[in-house]
Write a structure and sequence with these properties.
This protein has 141 residues and is an alpha/beta fold. Helix content is 42%, strand content 11%. It folds into 2 domains: 2-82, 3-Layer(aba) Sandwich (Rossmann fold), CATH 3.40.50.300; 95-140, no CATH class.
């Protein structure tokens, strides 16, 4: 599984450099990394995160091949054009559900939730109650 932030050209380039190292091909270009994935015998998942610029052609970050899958996270509907199957729009959870998700995923026992609820709600507000962002925050914490 590979996670690349495509918020800007520089972050995407850095993400693909990290992928290249993980694949054992240091100093590879984005195109070489994509070719390696296209020819891979193993199954893989590539997440292109923060694809929020409608003027960017994200197709240049999508490898060909049949052994893997690409998931694009975006706040713009225009990214649906990259989908080979139906795109799924995900809405955020409500504040209570997001807070419970954060506390549960962080491994905090339910009996201790009231003591951490305010901090958890602050985090959820900062993340806009986006479920994937909440899970990413827990992984970081």
């Amino acid at each position: 599984m590979f996670w690349v932030d495509v918020d800007s050209t520089s972050t995407a380039t850095n993400g693909f450099r990290t992928m290249a190292k993980a694949l054992g091909i240091p100093d590879a270009s984005i195109e070489e990394v994509l070719q390696t994935l296209a020819n891979a015998n193993e199954r893989w998942l590539l997440v292109l995160d923060n694809a929020d610029d409608p003027s960017t052609d994200y197709a240049s970050y999508i490898p060909s091949g049949t052994r893997g899958a690409v998931m694009i996270t975006s706040r713009i509907r225009e990214c649906q054009r990259y989908s080979t199957i139906a795109a799924v729009a995900l809405d955020g959870l409500d504040l209570e559900s997001s807070t419970q998700l954060l506390l549960n995923a962080a491994g905090i026992e339910a009996a201790s939730w009231p003591a951490h609820e305010k901090q958890a709600q602050d985090i959820v507000h900062l993340l806009g109650s986006h479920t994937l962002a909440v899970i990413q925050a827990v992984a970081y914490i």
